[in-house]
Amino acid sequence: MSNIFKSLFGSQKPPRVTGGAYTVDERDTVLALANFSQSSIGAPLPTVIASENSLSVIFYLEQRDPNWDGKTVKLVTPDSSDEPIGLVRFVHATAHYFGPPNDEAFRGHPLAKRGLKPYGAFEVFSSSWIRALENMNSVHPKHWPGIYSSHRHFILTFHDTIFECIAKDFSVEQHSGSLRSILPNLLTSV
């Protein structure tokens, strides 16, 4: 233990790294999800549609123009048409978080040193967040240990924000159009 740490905290153990919804300990492990389409690195415009029984995230996918001259910028909005769109539907979602950090402050995320990277899709194994949910539920008079054992911790990292959720599984779809054109169908399934 360093002298600086001792002067600040005495003989206590070093503090664990704290995130928005949970505190990370030595057990959390992050792995990239395979076969997941790349979100737009410029303006993915992620949108979360959530209810007590449904959770989905839509966003623009990365689309490279082979003829791009490097001098122009393409602006997209939720109404931009003919854009590739990713739709992720989460099955039996229990909790979610949508917010900081953005890509400039990304290394401040408590899992950044464990393999979490900007602009990707990940799963956290031995998740502190799932264990915290189990612990929180343990005060329930009819709590049964392992209530969250089939749940998984997923993270999608975007340009200006991240999305995290606890769910049993997910499915991925690709569409074309505008984000706004996809919303009516999602709202009917909420």
Features:
190 residues; alpha+beta; five-stranded antiparallel sheet; four-stranded antiparallel sheet; 14% helix; globular
Describe what you observe in this structure.
This protein has 190 residues and is of the alpha+beta class. It has one domain. It contains 3 helices and 11 strands. It has helices spanning 3-9, 128-137, 179-188, and strands at 17-18, 23-24, 29-32, 47-50, 55-60, 83-91, 95-99, 121-125, 152-157, 162-167, 169-177. It has a 5-stranded antiparallel sheet, with no helix packed on it. Strands 4-5-6-11 form a 4-stranded antiparallel sheet, covered by helices on one side. A hairpin with a 4-residue loop joins strand 4 and strand 5. It starts with a helix and ends with a helix. The relative contact order is 0.25. Residues 14-19 have low confidence and may be disordered.
